Every structure is written in C-alpha cells, then in structure tokens.
Task: structure prediction
Amino acid sequence: MKIFYDENMPFAEEFFRDFGELVPFSGRSLTAEQVKDADALLVRSITQVNEALLAQNSTISFVGSATIGTDHVDKEYLSKRGIRFHSAPGCNAISVAEYVVSALVVLAERYLIDLSKLTVGIVGAGNTGTRLSEKLDALGINYKLCDPLLAEKQKHPDSNDTRQYVALEEALTCDVISLHVPKTMSGEHATYQLLNKANLSQLTDKQILISACRGEVIDNDALLALKQAGHGVKLVLDVWQGEPNVLQELIAYTEIATAHIAGYSLEGKARGSEMLYQALCQHINCTEKYRLSDFLPDPSISLVKIKQKFDQIVLNQIVKMVYDVRRDDAIFRQQLAVQGFDSIRKNYPVRREFSALSVAISTDAYSDVPHRLGFSKTSN
Ligand SMILES: NC(=O)C1=CN([C@@H]2O[C@H](COP(=O)(O)OP(=O)(O)OC[C@H]3O[C@@H](n4cnc5c(N)ncnc54)[C@H](O)[C@@H]3O)[C@@H](O)[C@H]2O)C=CC1
Ligand SMILES: O=C(O)C(=O)[C@H](O)COP(=O)(O)O
Result:
C-alpha cells in the first residue's frame, strides 16, 4: 500500500511503518501529479482535498485528516468517488482549551483580573467548547454556552443533553468570548463572518475576544477598522482570515497573537496521527499494534509539589510551567516577517498538555483544582 502523509504528522512513520511504502509531503504544495498513485492520503488542514487533487488518481480508497476541522476537504466529492474519509474529532480539543486557559491566566495577570469573577461566553459547545467548559468548572469560572445546533437537537425526545444554551447576542455580552465553531459557509447557522462589523462594534474594552477556531469566523477587515477607530475589545487571535496571509496591521492591536497553534500540543497533534492509524487499520481490516503512549517522550518537567494554599498565583505558576502562550506570541510577532506563517507552524517547539505534569499537593493545602484542570495526580 502506498501512503502519502503530511510531513507535519508526528509519529506517522512509527504508526504506519507496517503498511507499505510511506511518502511524506509538504502540505501546502501537494500536487495531483504527486499523489496520482496513492492508495491512502493523510493530510492536515492546509491541504485542499478535492477533485482537482484526486481526479487523476484511480487507486485511492482512503483519505484521512489528522485534524478536527474538515473545511479543507470536499467530502461530497470523496463520497461520490467511494473514497472513505476519516478526520480526528476532538484530537486536539484539550490543547485548544489549554491555550484559552493560558491566555486567561496571562491576561488576568496583565490586567489584575480576578478570574473567579469572570463569565465566559463559549460559542460552539462541541468537543473543544466542552473541554473548555470543564476547565472553567474546575476553576470556578462561570460560563454561558451558545450552540443553536445543539440547542435544536436537545429538543429531540431521545436527547440526554441537559445543558443550557443562550443566543449569540447573549454570549457576546460576557466578559470573555471564546469561539469554537467550525467554518461553515452556508445554512441557517453559517459561521463565516459570524462576528462582523455590527456585532464587533458592540464589544467594549472591558471584554476579551478569543478566536482559536477558524480565521474566517471573524471579519478581520471590520475588526481592524474598529480597532483603528479606537474600539477597544481585547483580542486573543490564534487564527486569521486568509491564512497563511495574515492581515499584519491587526497584530499590533492584539493582546496575544499566534500562528494557528492552539491545537499544537504534541499530544493533540499526535492523537490525530493515532486516530487515523486506528481508522486505516479498520479500513484494511488489520489489528492495531501501536498506541500513542508507545511513542510519546517524557516531558522536560514531570513533577511539581504545591505546598501552599492553591490560589490564582499558584494557578498562574503551574499553567505557565507547562504552557505559557506568551512564548508563541513572541515567536509570532518576531518571526512572521522573517520566516513566514507556515514555517513558524512547521518549526513549532514541543509543547505538552497539562496532563504531562504530575502535581503533588501537600495534605494541609489540598485542592482538587489542578487535577480537575487536567494536571496528573501523583502517588508521591
Ligand atoms: N486553532 C486551532 O489550532 C484549532 C482550531 N480548531 C477549530 O475549532 C473548531 C471547533 O472544534 P470542535 O469543538 O472540536 O468541533 P466540534 O465539531 O466538536 O464542535 C463544533 C460545535 O460548533 C457548533 N456550531 C456550529 N455552528 C455554530 C454557530 N453558528 N453558532 C454556535 N455554535 C455553532 C456545532 O453545533 C458544534 O457543536 C473546528 O471545526 C476547527 O475549525 C480545532 C482544533 C484546533
Ligand atoms: O485540528 C484542527 O482543526 C486544526 O485547526 C489544527 O490544529 C490545524 O493544524 P494543521 O492541520 O494546519 O497542522
């Protein structure tokens, strides 16, 4: 079997080595000519998978995307051709939720915000929105969920979803707004420019707007015009309209700006590889031999002990010990013009999830917050 895989898929060689010939490719420049004899194609989000890419290929039976988002894949075309498609739902949802937590911790320190007094509007309550809500629960931070599609499904008599949903307008009044919707171009709840001149101009400088879903969900030109006119919403932007071509003037108006790396924990990216491995095993009816834990390296710091009462200062310390989003912000600001958007992403330094760090807590200062937030427990 000839498998083409994106060179940015961690552990692809390890997972797929028993399947036959493995051919790595660069995601943005893959051509129809290159993949004309592929049996399986494993991509990430920067490869457009469509008729133009696959029309010359008569051998392909499987396409996988090691990502949550699938807006780069023409699923209708694959289905018409009888090509099986798998993505990796939820693979890096924890990573994105931890990006948001790190951003909140950083901004809380910068503006002396008491996190427990905030309400977060989570727009899109799927895998990522839910992981974020669990972390906010752990931190005692209030939130409101906005997801009209889930709200509609909830009306079905078989639904066991008991969550409460609010309208977008209400979510947009929260202290923090965090966007976790897919990019959709049509339908009643299309997310293309869900945040536009009209609703962006209602936001105030007391609010924080976080976008780590898809750039096209916010009208970047409208946002820039508002910022230039002195509108103050605080911005945390991981994704940009028209990537890899970023509206560079907008960067100066952000609190935190990064190169679409919210989902780039090693675990998150590698879980995508593992999920495609499992799907391909099922597709060709073979037994799985490998698990992600076979390949993940030890983290650089594996254990900390908390000896004082757990509070926002200690939270700040342990979150930043694993992931300080200011590092990625600095790389983005300094390197975008030097190496470019794709290269920053390709050379992303290893980042681990909270679970890679075991947190011991002395008995007299015991708190369950770190473990509920995702840090591992230790028997020490
Ligand atoms: N920045 C990054 O590195 C990453 C970005 N993403 C993006 O985040 C998106 C969301 O990820 P997941 O939560 O895991 O996907 P998901 O598919 O589990 O959940 C998305 C939710 O959004 C809801 N939704 C759709 N249209 C909506 C609307 N108009 N208003 C409110 N809710 C709406 C859906 O009903 C669904 O519940 C992905 O589609 C992907 O584009 C995902 C991973 C990493
Ligand atoms: O999973 C998704 O959806 C994402 O947005 C990924 O983090 C995108 O990463 P690449 O596929 O562009 O490496």
